[in-house]
Write a structure and sequence with these properties.
Bound molecules: alpha-D-galactopyranose
Largest sheet: 10 strands, antiparallel
Strand content: 25-35%
CATH class of the largest domain: Alpha Beta
Number of strands: 37
CATH superfamily of the largest domain: Aldolase class I
Shape: globular
Enzyme class: hydrolase
Number of domains: 3
Catalytic activity: Hydrolysis of terminal, non-reducing alpha-D-galactose residues in alpha-D-galactosides, including galactose oligosaccharides, galactomannans and galactolipids
Domain Glycosyl hydrolase family 36 C-terminal: 626-702
Number of helices: 13
GO biological process, one term: carbohydrate catabolic process
Helix content: 10-25%
Distance between the termini: 29 Å
CATH topology of the largest domain: TIM Barrel
Family: Belongs to the glycosyl hydrolase.
Mean pLDDT: 96
CATH architecture of the largest domain: Alpha-Beta Barrel
Radius of gyration: 26 Å
Low-confidence stretches: 708-716
Length: 716
């Protein structure tokens, strides 16, 4: 059960989740200050954390860590979470507390809103906190309102600042990457000073992802305290971790990058995106599981649906898509057991390669003389759903759209319009652009019976200007994202059966914001199964397997040239939402039959992968096997996937210790029939049978023995 309580005597608010507490108060200067985030406390105990202010030297000022939303103002020298410039040029903010509200916006959810205003200027600030019965995640966001008659500028408006308790050391876990190498996990000491994770690209980015985990350097996968936070925002963002000279660590974060500001006109309100925080004392793996559960219960629109096995045409046919070729592939895909057939790039007017066509979203008449309907009909007749690739935010200069509306792109006067992949970014912040995109998308879906969109976004912003509006270049960073969200939301409302995959040249736009209105994500254009193991490892830190699309493609891999066995490629893709992206026209009968067998096998275990809980048994850190375990919530069924190269120097493979089983139970291996005691599996481990040689892999499906009557039915 979650709860929010307030003690008027001590002035302390206590937010309680099932296993954690979060406490705050307002200090004598009127500033909202942090007291605790960690193991459970009572309200009385939290009150004891309020310490009288001591004497400080004239050089110190306030500590950069310890406020709920440190402002630019007073004797503060750390990173401000809130910076404003009022109409007369004054920049400092001074807190005046107005009151608080505690409510229950939905069953099982409690919300606290702390309301403030500036002591003099017409700016209202509300700090929002939400807790839920079924998660330890605390959601936070901030709402700013200009209550005056003159415009003001918000130079920085973070969603929240998180403060950690004092520890001797701190460590940060986060991901970095680039196109084709997203989500590579790093775990390193937090340096003294300021550490910035950011995207200045207008999208979440391949290069960093807006989440982090902090620990005291003593946390492991299965033990130890970890404080983590993830931002629900799909544009530019900025997280700063501070390790202060007084030995504290905090993190402030929100939308927008350095140098951008937000105009806030009279009467206007700005609500920041949510920044969710999670504390656990059970290690990184438990933190990930808690995030997965949170994404499922509070982020995804359709968490209970089983994601279908899809086929995607991109690596198979590239831009060469036409009705006959796709119909032929669809027949093979259906035979393989595919449930959703997705036609990728190349289907629309003028699209022969990446130099033209974006913006002209009608089917190419040479390739689809009768439009898309005959292909969609055939795919449906074959028993599959139909999906289509779109890139609504983009335009090629060589397109009718651009010739008609050259002012619709992000641009500055007298500046080069920098092309990346021969394309420019449409200014989605403009009402007419967003309306145009919504219009053709909703018609496309309705007129063709489309069940699924792969929504792509293939370049970062540049020359991010909007000359038609004086405040345009400041406004567009947030308005662009809000309009993107609106268009997706309206499409979903128009077509309740429509499912959407978020893609941005692979994993350039994966975050809690986009996931609250899409169904799955394309983590990377790198489909080399060997590389994918580390990409998936990074992805799994916050995001659950049920949104992690994974294609089996052909070898040698188009990007890396590496060849690994079909079985290994399948086993890697089975760790998420299995899909096929190879050229099925070239698959041999043996490959097709092995593929069909593995697709069928996936269907018997995907309920464990997509809806179960995940334990990373061994990360991709050394020569040994990498292994991931999924277990159904009732601990009845288990799937372990193991991937490895040949052990160096012939060293024996280490035993894998399973996790999270019912210790008193026995589990039977569905393939071999062998029965294992859970206490042996978890306490001493098992060495799964793996073929020798490079790139060997296996899957181990276990069912609790007392439940063996349903063995192999693949119930989901
Ligand atoms: C991006 C996507 C790919 C594919 C191509 C098509 O790179 O990530 O999967 O859709 O665009 O141009």
């Amino acid at each position: 059960m979650s709860a929010i309580s307030f003690d008027p005597a001590s002035g302390v608010w206590l937010l309680s989740t099932a296993r954690t507490s979060y406490a705050l108060w307002i200090d004598p200067t009127g500033a909202p200050c942090h007291l605790a985030w960690g193991p459970p406390l009572t309200l009385a105990a939290a009150g004891r954390l309020v310490l009288p202010a001591g004497e400080v030297s004239s050089f110190e000022g306030r500590s950069p860590a310890g406020e709920e939303l440190p402002v630019d103002g007073g004797a503060r020298y750390g990173v401000p979470s809130l910076r404003v410039r009022f109409a007369d040029g004054t920049r400092a903010f001074e807190w005046a507390h107005l009151g608080h509200r505690i409510g229950e916006p939905a069953p099982g959810t409690k919300e606290l809103a702390l309301e403030f205003r500036d002591r003099h200027y017409p700016l209202a600030v509300a700090l929002h906190y939400r807790v839920h019965d079924d998660t330890d995640v605390v959601e936070r966001w901030t709402v700013l309102r200009n209550t005056g008659r003159q415009p003001m500028a918000v130079l920085r408006a973070d969603s929240a600042a998180w403060t950690l308790p004092p520890r001797d050391h701190y460590r940060i876990s986060h991901v970095t990457g680039q196109w084709s190498a997203e989500g590579l996990l790093h775990r390193e000491p937090v340096p003294h000073g300021e550490t910035v994770l950011t995207s200045r690209r207008g999208i979440t980015s391949h290069h960093a992802n807006p989440w982090l985990m902090l620990d005291a350097g003593d946390c492991g996968e299965d033990r130890g305290e970890v404080w983590s936070a993830a931002l629900a925002w799909s544009g530019s963002w900025h997280l700063t971790v501070q390790r202060t000279p007084d030995g504290r660590t905090s993190c402030t974060g929100g939308a927008g990058h350095d140098g951008t500001e937000l105009p806030l006109g009279p009467g206007q309100e700005y609500a920041t995106p949510r920044f969710a925080g999670l504390y656990t004392d059970r290690g990184f793996s438990a933190a990930s599981r808690a995030w997965h559960a949170y994404v499922r219960s509070h982020v995804l629109p359709h968490p209970d649906e089983m994601r279908p096995v899809l086929f995607n045409s991109w690596e198979a046919t590239g831009f060469e898509v036409d009705e006959a070729g796709q119909k032929a592939l669809a027949v093979r895909a259906a035979q393989l057991g595919v449930e959703l057939y997705v036609v990728d790039d190349g289907w629309f007017r003028g699209r022969r390669d990446d130099s033209a066509g974006l913006g002209d979203w009608t089917p190419g008449t040479e390739r689809f003389p009768r439009g898309l309907v005959p292909l969609v009909g055939e795919v449906h007749r074959l028993g599959m759903r139909f999906g289509l690739w779109v890139e609504p935010e983009m335009v090629n200069p060589d397109s009718d759209l651009y010739r008609a509306h050259p002012d619709w792109v992000l641009h500055f006067p007298h500046r080069t319009r920098t092309e990346l992949r021969n394309q420019l970014v449409l200014n989605f912040a403009r009402d007419d652009v967003a309306e145009w995109a919504y219009g053709w998308l909703t018609r496309l879906v309705a007129d063709n019976g489309i069940d699924f969109l792969k929504w792509d976004m293939n370049r970062a912003f540049s020359e991010a200007g909007w000359p038609a509006r004086e405040d345009g270049q400041d406004l567009l960073w947030t308005r662009y994202v809000h309009h993107l969200y609106d268009v997706i939301d309206r499409l979903r409302a128009d077509h309740p059966g429509l499912r959407i995959e978020t893609c941005s040249g692979g994993g350039g736009r994966v975050d809690l914001g986009i996931l609250s209105r899409t169904d799955q994500a394309w983590p990377s254009d790198n489909t080399d199964a060997a590389d994918r193991v580390s990409i998936q490892h990074g992805f799994s830190q916050i995001y659950p397997a049920q949104v992690m699309a994974a294609w089996v493609t052909d070898v040698p891999n188009q990007l890396t040239g590496r060849s690994v066995p079909l079985r290994y490629r399948f086993h890697v893709a089975m760790a998420g939402v299995l899909a096929v992206g190879g050229d099925l026209a070239r698959w041999t009968p043996e490959e097709l039959s092995e593929g069909a067998e593995l697709v069928a096998q996936y269907k018997t275990v995907r309920h464990i992968v997509q809806h179960g809980v995940q334990h990373r048994l061994r990360g991709p850190v050394d020569d040994g096997p990498t292994a991931v375990q999924y277990t159904t919530a009732d601990r009845r069924e288990v799937l372990v996937l193991v991937w490895q190269r040949a052990p160096r120097h012939g060293t024996p493979r280490p035993a894998l210790r399973l996790a999270g089983l019912d210790p008193t139970a026995c589990y039977r291996d569905v393939t071999t029939g062998a029965v294992h005691h859970a206490c042996v599996l978890t306490g001493y481990g098992i060495a799964p049978e793996l073929p020798t040689g490079d790139w060997s892999s296996t899957s181990l499906h276990l069912i609790r023995v007392d439940d063996m009557t349903t063995e192999g039915t693949g119930s989901h």
